[in-house]
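User: Please fill in residues for this 336-position structure.
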């Protein structure tokens, strides 16, 4: 990426040459005989937007039941894995310095989980070529986890089934399974139990990337605070929204877009309300905070309208950048 930042850390505790960033020792294990680890594997994995995010009251375990309608969009990270003496993670791209390179990185956790399941050492270098906004409510970290999982499975010639990979994804995080699957899906439970959905056409989107990020746990905590005195209904998918997706009808979809986390995100970042108003005034059919934010999403009627909305957002100074793309997009795929 032109002008991209580069960061790296060896998560077994050694310095990365040229980066001077240290990580924690998370590798462990021994390599298993007969596991092929040659060459490199690159996986391309998409971002997501939640066209509906219905959130239930907090459960005793602290999680929330969700009715989460995911739609994969055409912004992607690329994850490249190569054999290495130890597990290490590097990252390049916009805001690479914000990406954790230790054992908290979902890509590292995916490699560790897969290796542990098969009794092998996670001796791999994971490189993340970052294009999905960091901490932007578009599941960039989850995408990296799904991408690393698929890439390591191919590199190590494990031949895992999709069901096996999805089970590991669900252990890693609520959004990780959808990053593997792509397309469109309804997620229930914590969002990890997926039912694929039909999409009858192409939807055009603009994503306004804000400065800084929003912590997903902080947004959920604010949701809990704001709804403490309310009777929060059980989350359920909106039949009208599902019908609009199936028909490929952007106008009908715009009328049904909802995000129960949006009031919490706006409470923590009030300036996002101005961004939403700017995109709507420029002709977007609908606008909403993407997931837990702070990225804001604008559905438009066509590609030309999307370009107009993006220009208005950039001219306003309300966002750091505006990205034009379309949906649906395929899930994680090996590209080389």
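Assistant: Residues filled in for all 336 positions:
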């Amino acid at each position: 990426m032109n002008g991209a930042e580069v960061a790296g850390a060896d998560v077994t505790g050694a310095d990365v040459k040229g980066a001077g960033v240290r990580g924690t020792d998370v590798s462990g294990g021994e390599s298993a005989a007969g596991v092929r680890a040659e060459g490199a594997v690159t996986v391309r994995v998409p971002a997501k937007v939640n066209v509906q995010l219905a959130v239930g009251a907090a459960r005793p375990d602290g999680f929330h039941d969700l009715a989460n309608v995911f739609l994969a969009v055409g912004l992607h990270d690329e994850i490249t894995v190569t054999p290495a003496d130890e597990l290490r993670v590097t990252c390049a791209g916009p805001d690479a310095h914000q990406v954790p390179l230790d054992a908290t990185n979902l890509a590292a956790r995916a490699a560790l989980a897969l290796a542990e399941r098969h009794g092998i050492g996670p001796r791999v270098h994971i490189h993340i070529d970052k294009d999905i906004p960091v901490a932007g409510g578009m599941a960039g970290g989850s995408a990296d986890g799904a991408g690393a999982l698929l890439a390591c499975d191919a590199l190590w010639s494990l031949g895992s089934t999709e069901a096996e990979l999805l089970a590991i994804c669900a252990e890693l995080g609520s959004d990780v399974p959808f990053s593997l699957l792509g397309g469109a899906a309804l997620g229930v439970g914590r969002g990890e139990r997926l039912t694929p959905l039909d999409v009858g056409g192409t939807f055009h989107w603009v994503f306004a990337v804000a400065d800084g990020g929003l912590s997903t746990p902080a947004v959920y905590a604010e949701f809990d605070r704001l709804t403490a005195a309310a009777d929060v209904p059980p989350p359920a998918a909106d039949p009208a929204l599902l019908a609009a997706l199936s028909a490929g009808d952007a106008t009908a979809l715009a009328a049904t877009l909802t995000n129960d986390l949006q009031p919490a995100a706006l409470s923590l970042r009030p300036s996002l309300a101005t961004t939403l108003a700017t995109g709507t005034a420029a002709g977007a059919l609908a606008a909403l905070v993407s997931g837990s934010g702070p990225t804001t999403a604008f559905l438009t009627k066509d590609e030309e309208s999307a370009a107009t909305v993006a220009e208005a957002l950039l001219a306003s100074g309300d966002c750091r950048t505006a990205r034009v793309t379309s949906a649906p997009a395929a899930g994680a795929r090996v590209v080389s």
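For context: Residues 140-155 form the longest helix (16 residues).
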